[in-house]
Amino acid sequence: MSRRYFVLPAVLLLSLVTAGPGRADDTVIREFSSGSGPGAVGIVEPGEDADTEGPQAIYAGDRGEIYLLDQLNGRILQFDPSEPSRPPQSLALPEDLRPTDIVVSADTIYTWDGQVRALQATGPADAPTRGLSLTRSGEPPDEAIGSVFAQMGSQPIEAEDGLTRRVGQAAGRGRQVIASHGRGAMTADFSPAADEAGVEINLRPKGSAAAALRLRLQVRSRLGAVEVLDVDRQGRAYVLAENIPTDFSDQASAFVARFAASGALEGVHELPLDSSVAVSRRFVTVTPNGDVYFLRNRKGATDVLGVGFRPLKGAGVIDTGPPRPQLSFADLARRRGANAAVRPLTRARVLETAQAFATIKWRVNRGAYGGDPDSVCSGFNRVRRPGYLHGKADQEVQGIPYCWGCMGSLPQIASNIEHGVKAGNICTRNDPRRDVTGVDCSAFVSASWGLATHFTTIAIPSITKPVSNPFELLPGDALNKPGAHVMLFVRFTPDRKAEVIEASTGGCNGKVCRNVYPLGSLLARGYQPVRYRGLLDAADPTPVATARPGAAAAGAR
Asked: Which of 87, 431, 527, 532 has a 20 to 30 Å separation from 324 between CA atoms?
């Protein structure tokens, strides 16, 4: 990469400390309704303890085209945002592939389903429907592709020791590799500030000794994830950052800051995250020309938004996100929740139980697999069986299945499966079934906390207390969105994301699994950090001995 693409070091200070003008307007580029037709995507409507499930990822290609992962329909939709009325092209995923994230480079589509897999389209380039074939399954990805997946938490989970890491021990990643649209492979070196509200980023072509573009980023409260998303054809850099509050007087927000090739701040794209927006894995992408697009899953539809740009002039400070709430003492009292009888337990026990739900291996007997197909879920054409079990009859799988409205301990679930009870139920818009076994999101957290009663996401506030500073989350705490979903917190990753264990139909493909998410994006969507009041607390909890992968609970085979 030629050093003519860069100028001598420039310094930028982006500070979010005072209220500024209203955010720029966003534009709906394309709206997708629920369905399986050319202009629709698979959407499962929300229910109690079940958030909206829709497309999980969006990515911009080298020509500015947009790729949308429509995993419920088993396909990727490709369309030109400059021609929103033109039907998208459908790229059919291989039958046994159920990814949760995508990255596109040249003519290759990379997917993530716990590992990176490379796909290439087959059939005429202008056909309305094309196939995707696996090209290099199991081959280690290019370093830049792996780094792009890690931007949104699609990354291998670290070895299962040291689960007690806190954010003070994870001051930020050291280096990131960027597969940019405009400048090819680049590296970014991060130097976090001591106050944890700022970071210095040095950006240069990969392997080059050229002078680095130096950026300084500082937020109002405390930095969450910081990721260099792209460098466009004009040499402008785009940095995703999160402002995370440390008390109830502030609200979380996320934005993409745009820097000129000279290093000067040009402005920000404020991401429209709020409690009405469901969780998706890759929710923002940048085109080669510098357009920023946002994936919004909401009740009844999925939107691809062109995110408005707010220019910034001079050295003025800016603010992002919604106005800071004015809380009364009564508000704070209500957040403490009602009294409830709870029994004490240790964080180590919570993590051991949660890990066992995620790592247990078992054989799918014919009773657990069920008839093919089983009942069709209301609201969308899919069957009762969780996705990770499809085609796995008489085979070994890992993880307890997601089961809408189900509750049980590991031994109880293992015994049910042993006796031929159907495994899992993802029909979250139907009444819970009595002939199935597994756990839903809140049942999993309840079981991890040692509760004999199923506390739903709406009831969880009655047995928890809010954690006002999200960076004080400890292993065994939770991120709860009442009425929608709950995740058990494990630890902070080195790049300041939140590692969780959850039972999910979308992010886990219908089972209990470990996942990584940008923390600020969860908070901005309405997730609340909470601490179970029955936990024996400790400022520095002892290391957690986790379940070995493949360890079986009583009754499992």
From this structure: 532
Confidence bin at 344 (pLDDT 50/70/90): low
Nearest of 58, 80, 61 to residue 71 by alpha carbon: 58
Could you give the angle at the alpha carbon of 230 between the alpha carbons of 225 and 235, nearest 5°? 130
Q: Are strands 13-14 and 478-481 parallel, antiparallel or unpaired?
A: unpaired
Does the domain made of 3-154+175-311 have the CATH classification 3.40.50? no
Which amino acid belongs to residue 67? Y
From CA 158, how far away is CA 516, in angstroms rounded?
11
CA distances to 61, 229, 236, 433 from 182, in Å: 12, 12, 9, 52
Q: How many angstroms separate the CA atoms of 73 and 98, rounded?
A: 10
Please, what's the b/e burial string for 304-339 (b: 16 or more CB within 10 A of its CB; e: otherwise)? Answer: bbbbbbbebeeeeebbbbeeeeeeeeeeeeebebee
Best CA proximity match to 278, nearest among 506, 509, 112: 506
| DSSP conformation letters of 504-547 | ESSTTSSEEEEEEE-HHHHHHTT-EEEEETTB---SSPPPP-PP
Task: Return the pLDDT at 426.
Answer: 93
Q: Is the pTM of this model over 0.85?
A: no
H or E segment and range at residue 18: none
Q: Give the phi and the psi of residue 357 in degrees, each rounded to 5.
A: -60, -35
Pairing of strands 213-218, 13-14: parallel
Nearest-10 crossing angle of helices 347-359, 410-418:
20
Predicted pLDDT at 139? 60
3-state secondary structure of 186: strand
* pLDDT grade for 515, boundaries at 50, 70 and 90: very high
CB–CB of 334/325 below 8 Å? Answer: no
> Regarding beta strands 66-70 and 57-60, do their DSSP bridges make them parallel or antiparallel, or are they unpaired?
antiparallel
> Per residue in 10-35, pLDDT tens?
333 333 332 334 557 899 999 999 99
The answer to whether residues 526 and 481 touch, using CB atoms and an 8 Å cutoff, is: yes
Cβ(148)–Cβ(228) below 8 Å: no
Spatial contact of 523 and 247, defined as CB atoms under 8 Å apart: no
Reported in sequence order, the residue ranges of 325-365 that DSSP labels E, i.e. its strands, are 361-363
pLDDT, one tens digit per residue, over 129-144 is 999 998 865 566 678 8
CATH 2.120.10 intervals, the chain: 3-154+175-311
Q: What is the DSSP letter of 25?
A: P
The closest alpha carbon to 513, from 446, 416, 444, belongs to 444
Cβ atoms of 134 and 117 within 8 Å: the answer is yes
Beta strand pairing call for 184-192 and 498-504: unpaired
Q: Which residue has the tokens 């796995």?
A: 392
Q: Rounded to an integer, what distance in angstroms lies between the CA atom of residue 427 and that of residue 415?
A: 23
Q: Which of 46, 48, 50, 100 is nearest to 72 (CA)?
A: 100
